[in-house]
Amino acid sequence: MIDLLRLRARLGRQTVAYPEGPARFPERFRGRPALDPDRCEAGCRACADACPVDAVLRPGEAGMALDLGRCTFCPGCEEACPTGAVRFTRDYRLAARDREALVVSGDRPLLAEALGAELRGLLGRSLRLRQVSAGGCNACEAELNATGNVQFDFSRFGVQFVASPRHADGVVVTGPVSDHMREALRRTWEATPSPKILVAVGACAISGGPFQGGSVAGGAAEALPGVPVDLFIPGCPPHPITLLDGLLRLLGRVKGEALSLSPTGIVGPARRG
Predict the structure, then answer these.
(1) What local confidence, expressed as pLDDT, does residue 5 receive?
(2) CB contact at 8 A, 75 and 88
(3) Which of 96, 107, 193, 257 is deepest in the core (most CB within 10 A)?
(4) Does the keyword Transcription regulation apply (predicted)?
């Protein structure tokens, strides 16, 4: 026991300082893409041809855009672009309330808007979520699990994952919704008491990702017609800090533009609500 206590003292604090301070990322982390259509060569389709999920829209035009709801954040478009019109930044702020907001151009962060005051009052300090893996590869599920470890410790914000939808305040969907999981997802949603929220995590849960077609119904919005998705968190998979940022913004716990960026990482204080 003494040895364990000594080890713990030697390790010190492991939890990231986010949102009060800097968030740590690995060197190969790729965050929000930045587009500069003015640098595009007219008619050039190099970035679009390199994209495995058709996420690049209107390539070689002034209105070029990138659909983060489809993007797998591979470096294909950046490497293929001969003029540097597409590049990936280290900005983790990617979540949005509306699907249309994920179609981006230029170089601006995505800052998800908060829920209404009534829902924030009910869910803002104690949020319980039921996660449904609807047919994915388990990468997004692994990142969601990581939000509960000592590095990120989502529970310090009062957010926890629960085993039963009857104990939940909302449902988190990961993976493309396969035909076989569509009914299970619907029943999970219906078993969750109102008021409740629906969160789509990862490209597959947003659009079907690279698994579109065949026996895949699509993303959460397609699988649950008529049910609005309250938060879209893109990525393949999204980093735990991206997950934290999106959900805390939804709950009104993080406001403003939060952490600033530097070439080596992300520094500067965040403003919390």
Answers:
(1) 74
(2) yes
(3) 96
(4) no
pLDDT at residue 259 in the model: 56
Fold of 117-252: Rossmann fold (3.40.50)
Give the strand pairing for 231-233 and 197-201: parallel
pLDDT at 176: 93
The 10s digit of each residue's pLDDT in 117-164 is 888 888 878 899 999 999 889 999 999 999 999 889 999 999 999 999
Domain locations in the chain?
33-88, 117-252
Q: What is the residue type of 228? A: P
Q: What is the 3-state secondary structure (H, E, C) of the chain?
A: CHHHHHHHHHHCCCCCCCCCCCCCCCCCCCCCEEECHHHCCCCCCHHHHHCCCCCEECCCCCCCEEECCCCCCCCHHHHHCCCCCEEECCCCCCCECCHHHHEECCCCCCCCCCCCHHHHHHHCCCEEEEEEECCCCCHHHHHHHHCCCCCCCHHHHCEEECCCHHHCCEEEEECCEEHHHHHHHHHHHHHCCCCCEEEEECHHHHHCHHHCCCCEEECHHHHCCCCCCCEEECCCCCCHHHHHHHHHHHCCCEECCCCEEECCEEECCCEEC
pLDDT of residue 233: 98
